[in-house]
Amino acid sequence: MKRVVSIVVPLAAVLLLAVAVSAWAGGGDRSGNSGKTLTVVEHATTDATTDTGDPGDTAGDVLTFANEVFNAGDTAKVGTDQGYCIRVVKGTAYECNWTTFLPGGQIAVEGPFLDAGNSTLAITGGTGRYRGARGTMDLRSLAGGKKFTFVFHIKG
Predict the structure, then answer these.
(1) Nearest 5°: phi and psi at 31?
(2) pLDDT of residue 75
(3) pTM for the whole thing?
(4) CB–CB of 112/93 below 8 Å?
(5) Cα(124)–Cα(108) distance, rounded to whole angstroms?
(6) 94 neighbors 107 (Cβ within 8 angstroms)
(7) Alpha-carbon distance 1 to 90, whole Å?
(8) 147 closest CA partner among 56, 70, 78, 44
(9) Rounded distance, CA 95 to CA 39, Å?
(10) Which one of 19, 87, 99, 119 has the lowest number of neighbouring Cβ atoms within 10 Å?
(11) CB 118 within 8 A of CB 84
(12) 111: phi > 0 → left, psi -120 to 50 → alpha, else beta; which?
């Protein structure tokens, strides 16, 4: 009997530990913010491109901006954004980094901006109510590129 107990108890402890580790690892988001969608509309009024090489559109050119952002209905200003993009493929794509400033915090993103088409960027972090944010942001062009919808799919 003593031998059975000496085998079963450690085995049960190992099994319990394995179950606990598995539950913890698969527990998903532990921040209490398991998923939100937030939509804003940017008014692209300050976009400026700086030529860094040959005149005209070339790889390495820098696009900078600091624009107002509005609610999903595009009826009330809710914040601002600021950032920059580096031209990586002439006439096709930039690689961008920017921060959107909203009531209660900021959301930072990084990823492609396509000249002709929508794109998805990574949410790389946040502050305040968005602290620890991860996820994606869908970027959609509106009004011929004068406005953009940002749809943040926030986790964390």
Answers:
(1) -90, -10
(2) 98
(3) 0.77
(4) yes
(5) 6
(6) no
(7) 78
(8) 44
(9) 21
(10) 19
(11) no
(12) left
Give residue-wise pLDDT tens across range 33-91.
Answer: 468 999 999 999 999 999 998 999 999 999 999 999 999 999 999 999 999 999 999 99
Tracing tokens 């300050």 back to the chain, one arrives at: 46
Interval 77-121: pLDDT, tens: 999 999 999 999 999 999 999 999 999 999 999 999 999 899 999
Q: Which two tokens stand for residue 66?
A: 């600091």
Q: Which two tokens stand for residue 90?
A: 């002439």
* DSSP letters spanning the chain: -HHHHHHHHHHHHHHHHHHHHHHHHT----SS---EEEEEEEE--S-EEE--SSSSS-TT-EEEEEEEEE-TTS-SEEEEEEEEEEEEETTTEEEEEEEEEETTEEEEEEEEEESSS-EEEEEEEE-GGGTT-EEEEEEEEEGGGTEEEEEEEEE-
Asked whether the beta carbons of 110 and 124 are under 8 A apart, the reply is: yes
Tokens representing residue 23 in the block? 């539950």
Question: What number of residues does the chain have?
Answer: 156
Cβ neighbours for 34, distance < 8 A, ≥ 6 positions apart: 28, 155
Which two structure tokens, joined as six digits, stand for 95?
Answer: 């690689």
